[in-house]
Task: structure prediction
Amino acid sequence: DLNDAQAREMVRVVDTARPELEVLKEIRVQLREEMLAQMQQDSVDVLDVNALLEANWASVHAKLPALAQNFTDFHTLLTPEQRIKVKEQMSKGWESNHFVRLESSNTSRIVFGMSIALDLDDIQEQEMTNLINTLRNESEEFKERRIGLREEMYEQILQDSVNVEDVEALLDIRWSEVQFKLPLLAQGFTDFHTILTQEQRVKIAEK
Result:
């Protein structure tokens, strides 16, 4: 429910933010293509995968100041009532997030879906179950910290005013949390690759 002045200013804010968001989208697409290329190889080295993830994530870090400024500009436009609505929409978006839904899914259900899609044998199903459970156990602390940071972002939205340096600091914390887990993600990807046959890895690239 923006008024005319807010609508005009919102257009300016969105136009300013769009180039940065497009770059982030390109970074994500590039990483996906590079990871699919890794998946097609006969073997992968965990150090190479980790280096790939770190280089990609460093590119994201360079965009944090601009993202913090975009958030601050967006916040300034809104009334307290509108910020409450935004907070509610952010909460709904979080709940529908693919990774959040994946975290809440039963391991056996995930493995069953993978088995159908990739035609896993019994040994592979057990190895996938072990891998997913290991990743979940090691990621539990990370999940709790991420939830805490999400709540801090909600608090920022609801404040009467926000400081761009504070927002950037929160984003940097989130970035650092993910960076800390990159070796775990690299190892998980490498283990996942090892479990699959060449034919199964081709199926993944085709999906």
User: Anything to note?
Assistant: The chain is about 85% helix and 0% strand. Residues 4-40 form the longest helix (37 residues).
